[in-house]
Amino acid sequence: MSLFGTDGVRGVANRDVTAELAYQIGQAAGRYLQSKNDLPHRVVMGRDTRISGAMLGAAVAAGLCSEGIETVACGVLPTGGISRIAKTGDYGLGVVISASHNPAADNGIKLMSHQGTKLPEEVEATIESLMGPATEDRPLGGDVGRLITSRDEVEGYMDWLVSLVPERLEGMKIAIDAAHGAAYELGIEVFKRLGAEVISTGTEPDGMNINAEGGATKPQTIQDLTQSTNADLGVSYDGDADRAVFSDSQGRLINGDRTMAIWCAHWQSQGQFNPAVVVGTVMSNGGFETYLKSQGIQLERAKVGDKYVAAKMRELNGLVGGEQSGHLIFSQYAPTGDGLLTALQMARVLKRENRTAADAFGDFENWPQMLINVQIHRREGWDDNQQVQDVLKWAEERLGDHGRINVRPSGTQPMIRVMVEADSGDLRDEVVNKVADTMTDALGGSIYSRVDLTHALGD
To answer: What is the pLDDT of residues 65-105, one digit of tens each?
Structure first.
């Protein structure tokens, strides 16, 4: 099994992700860079606010330096900041020490390319293959890599973010939940520099409270704050601030679909959205797709996962894509998700239109959407069952142009995930209930959970 998962190495800090493992990863990454004459032998590194972050970061840096690689440690910095610095600076790799939206006891190590993207799987495999005991020809004397602690690059990142909003944000009231995470300073400061009035929470990290009281996966905190302060827009980051979700002054959640709809419709109306295509996922809401069509914009769907979204965007030269979770990519600005960038793009459009988030919320209605997880005895061969095939064919015919069904097996559990959406709640419920009942009868299972996703954040 590969050491690197879909988002780097992640697990409980000091048990699954140890200082020893971090050192070995740093050492292997250093060996990889030393083998590449076309890449700078320098690495930029940042982390979130977890108590284990400094320990793991020091271990990664030690491994890099032991192989002669200069390492610039920027301290607490959102993932988007490391991506930007790796892409624009003289660096061969970027390193992020974070477990994103996971609990504080977890941590992770994610490597980024010199272009600011996630590393290709084949490069991760190469680095993993280079892990092993120290060699006899280790760098000595002046060939040992330097460890430089510096925030100089951070100012360049902030200046770039500010430059993306030439209209500035004077007159806007912004509520922000930083989740006691990587954006607890910069995610507030950038809005202040642009002239906005800021009301904030989640800005007092103690090493163990990251994501505990709010954040993008617990949006009720920002919904309550935005409503109680009557803010024009509420912003909620996750732990490493690579995504953002929003709220309006009525406490209504604005997920990734609705964010992209607001942004795309504005730039389409300005004649500045070309090609007129958005990349969503198989979970993107039908109401979102219908609204885009009314604006002359096409929705293309990718599999769930930001790497699939990014790949489809490259294929189509798309300007924006993302997931309901708020992990959005604005390709003309950055190659990966950046919650601060996302928040500024949302605020900028509202400023240009002289609207609040509440004004923009009603641009379209989500279609009723339901996810049912059907627990079965075994995943293998489920789709060969004739009863299952018949009911899925019936579902597609019954929904027609008024909805859709997506069925996919879990990658890790004996479970089938059935998502049904329709332009009416009655049609959705009719279809999802018949499909779920047929599956449980035909496959000998039971309904594990039923989740209304109409206004949710998706997977």
So the answer is: 999 999 999 999 999 999 999 999 999 999 999 999 999 99
Tens digits of residue pLDDT in 166-184: 999 999 999 999 999 999 9
The rounded radius of gyration (Å) of the Cα atoms in the chain is 23
The yes-or-no answer on residue 200 being catalytic is no
Q: How many domains does the chain have?
A: 3
- Could you tell me if 290 and 350 lie in one domain? yes
Helix (H) or strand (E) holding 87: helix 79-88
The range of the structural domain enclosing residue 195 comes to: 164-361
Per-residue pLDDT, 166: 98
Residue 159 tokens read as: 């200046």
* Candidate list 100, 247, 284, 325, residue with the active-site label: 100
Low-confidence stretches of the chain (pLDDT < 50) are none
Non-local CB neighbours of 455 within 8 Å, separated by 6+ positions? 252, 253, 255, 366
pLDDT at 173: 98
Per-position DSSP letters for 48-69, written without gaps between them: -S-TTHHHHHHHHHHHHHHTT-
Residue 342 sits in a domain whose CATH number is 3.40.120.10
Q: Reduce the DSSP state of residue 132 to 3 states and report it.
A: coil
H or E stretch at 289: helix 286-294
> Quick check: is 156 in a domain?
no
Q: Using an 8 Å Cβ cutoff, are 37 and 43 in contact?
A: no
Residue where one domain finishes, among candidates 117, 151, 185: 151
| Residue finishing a domain among 361, 394, 424 | 361
Taken as a whole, the chain contains a residue count of: 459
Range 280-284, long-range pairs (CB < 8 A, 24+ positions): 280/309, 280/321, 280/322, 280/323, 281/305, 281/308, 281/309, 281/323, 281/324, 281/458, 282/406, 282/408, 282/419, 283/323, 283/324, 283/406, 283/419, 283/453, 283/458, 283/459, 284/257, 284/324
